Amino acid sequence: MRLELVGRLGAARWGARRTPVQAAALAAIAAVTLVACGGTGAAKAGRDTSNNAAAVKAEPVVISVKPDSGGAPAAPGSKINVRTSGGKLSKVTVSAPDTDAFAGSLSKDKSTWTSSALLAPGTQYTVLARAEGPDGKQISKRSTITTAAAQDTFVGEYSPNKGTTVGVAMPVSVTFNRPIENKAAVERGLTVTATPAVEGAWSWMKDRNGKDRIDYRPKEFWKPGTKVTLRMSLSGVDAGKGMLGTQQRVVNFTIGKSVVSTVDVEKKAMTVAENGTVVRTLPVSNGKKGFDTWSGTMVVLSKVPTLRMDSRTVGIFGPEAYDIGEVKWDVQLTPSGTYAHAAPWNEGLFGKVNASHGCIGMSTKDAKWFYDRVRLGDPVTVVNSAEDTVAVNNGYGDWNVDWATWKAGSALN
Fold first, then answer.
1. Does residue 341 have an active-site annotation?
2. pLDDT tier, 55 (very low <50, low <70, confident <90, very high otherwise)
3. What CATH architecture applies to the domain 62-146?
4. Is 37 a catalytic residue?
């Protein structure tokens, strides 16, 4: 209508002079034109528009999870991503069978959660996400993610076990069932934290059985009462040639009181100190010439009240072969066969003659006292022996390596 009126007035302008009536009409049209080009007239006029704002609906809160629940299996080694629009994430949990923890981090604006752990092969995960909208209302979403199987996987056997109390020399040790080519990637998936904090490091070695093994120890013995946590985030980690890890573990253990034993081969005596104070000195009989007891620090591996000792199990044959039968109060120090135990057949030799085949023998009464005193992870250090220092992989010989050499054994160094 506006264009039509303007056109007519334009035609009148070219045809004749404007009359008073035409001038009045032109002024009225100009006023109409100005109002039409001025935007929202109601707002310009100062009228209340709050009813219009109330009519606008709030953005709905939506949660999305990647990889998607449906369709083809998800790729192992990928991460989980949870995102919300219209709200903020308040909680995200990921669970799976035989999985302790699946860590992740939330963005600053709480709109996105990304897992730090990777998806393991052949596993079904349940993701539970919750978000809160601007109105305070909570919504939740439950998703299931199933990953494709891998052709090759690996696991690590760890020590100590969850919830145990161990000695001050106990390292954290993980032995793998498959050769590890990408040691750096695997090591990144392993962390140890302690309260109080300590300086510590991982170091790789070959176990006595030829398997790849990595140990973590502090620079000095742990302090009694220390709380230690091993986190194994190996799910989806590629250890080389597509061989993927499957483990998510959180292993907590505690350091008990300090029980440190020192065996002096020349003096044929073992002193036992608790929390720095010597509580007893026991007469012992160590390895005789040719069967000398290992030098250096060994760590208690296990305890059994009765054990049959047959020399053939540790490679001793011929004239020195023996089969003693049942031996009492056995404290194992190395997998190569070193024990501290009762040796009643050597009665009268303790403190006087070294007559064993490498073990630390003592009276049945003293052996029982020592057995009751020590636990897994307690150190036993042998001095003044003609034998070589016990190897780092012969049990937990970790403490026989200087600190610089130990740290150099890390794949991340």
1. yes
2. very low
3. Sandwich (2.60)
4. no
